Amino acid sequence: MIDGSDSAVAVPSERAVSVTAYLSAVESYLKGDGEPALERAYEIGRTALAQGVGLLGLARIHHTCLETLLSRANSTQGCATTLAGAADFFAECISPYEMTYRGFRDANIALRRFNSVLEREAKRIAHSLHDEAGQLLVAVYIATANLAQDLPQAAGHVANITELLDRIEAELRRLSHELSPAMLKDFGLVPALTYLAEGVSRRSGLRITIEGTPERRLPEPIEAALYRVAQESLTNAVRHARATKVTIRLRHEAAAISCHIRDDGVGFDVNLAETSTDERGFGLIGIRERAGSLGGSLEIKSAAGAGTELVVSIPLET
Ligand SMILES: Nc1ncnc2c1ncn2[C@@H]1O[C@H](COP(=O)(O)OP(=O)(O)O)[C@@H](O)[C@H]1O
Ligand SMILES: [Mg+2]
Q: How far apart are the first and last CA of the chain?
């Protein structure tokens, strides 16, 4: 534990990383304590990270100690030795930050891959729904037609079955188009969102309004990301929010496009959902990652009983 009552960096914990502890550890390294002193440096870094001290806070402590150490050095050579030793110590101290950063970077890469795997899977399922399930339905149509021929007295029932099959076929085609929307490529974001909203609305009873139209077609990755964002948000509104109404609002500004998706449902504790280790989905994480991979961001505004609003902003090249 690192503690002390001297100029400590304010951290959200009661414990703090102190200048005194840091200074005494660097001094022991400079005196030649070698490996054990470096282990202390690592421990200081690890504790600081765990306590929520930022890299800048740690650099500030290092700088304060360096001033003290350099004021004691009485030759240029002494200054140089102190500087070099303190630099080694600092490098060791921040190595836990470096490892964490690498961990985040790897996690981001994994998430990005995960999104593209999802995209491929969506295409595959859309294809199966459209083609394979479609072919099976054709076989059922033929079988029922044969049945009607062989059993003329069952013609009424067969007509009912055929009507139901028509509806299943239409629904499968619609789901397949929503999953992998060719319409997005051909007609753009608003027509694809309108089509998606019609389907979700019909299946769930949710009232969905789409407001705002981009002034021009947006780059394909941005349209695709915003479509997936809306799709996940609508799924969440149906699955979790118990909402009656959702508004999707697109705002095309000079340097960015933003998409605001607001529902009037039960809302949720965003901090809890983001930090919870319970089994939870990848929907919101996926949205954040998709926006992030395009240089954009996701903001979630929600509170119990007050509905939820997701704001995704993506910068546009001007
Ligand atoms: N619109 C919403 N209304 C209420 N709760 C929501 C909403 N969106 C998300 N949540 C909460 O956040 C959690 C995480 O959502 P998400 O990342 O999409 O995963 P999943 O939908 O698979 O659970 C949900 O389980 C739910 O508790
Ligand atoms: Mg979800």
A: 51
Q: What is the pLDDT of residues 235-246, one digit of tens each?
A: 999 999 999 999
Output the CA 233–ligand 1 centroid distance in Å: 9
Residue 115, pLDDT > 60, answer yes
Place of tokens 């534990």: 1
Which value, to the nearest 10 degrees, does the dihedral of the CA atoms of residues 128, 129, 130, 134 take?
100
- Nearest atom within ligand 1 for CA of residue 235: 21
Mutation to probe ligand 1, out of 228, 262, 279, 280 (largest number of atoms < 8 A from CB): 280
Q: For a substitution probing ligand 1, which of 236, 239, 246, 270 has the most ligand atoms within 8 Å of its CB?
A: 236
Query: Does domain 181-318 match CATH 2.40.40.10?
Result: no
**214 pLDDT tier (thresholds 50, 70, 90):** confident
Sort 178 into a burial class: Cβ within 10 Å, 0-12 / 13-18 / 19+.
Answer: buried
Using an 8 Å Cβ cutoff, are 278 and 284 in contact?
Answer: no
Q: What is the pLDDT of residues 122-148, one digit of tens each?
A: 889 988 888 888 889 999 999 999 999
The structural domains of the chain, with segments of one domain joined by +, span 19-93, 114-180, 181-318
Ligand 1 touching residue 298 (CB < 6 A) = no
Q: Which residues surround ligand 2, an ion (CB under 5 A)?
A: 236, 281, 283
